[in-house]
Amino acid sequence: MMEHISLDGVIAPPGDDDYANGGWTAAYRSPEGAAATAEAQGDRFDLLLGRKTYDLWSGYWPKMSGGPFADKINAATKYIATHRPESLEWGPIGDLGKDAIEGIRRLKSQDGPDLLIWGSASVTSVLLQQGLVDELVLTVYPILLGKGKRCFSDSMDPREFAFVSSKASRTGLLLNTYRHVG
Question: Domain map of the chain by residue range?
Answer without folding.
Answer: 2-14+24-180
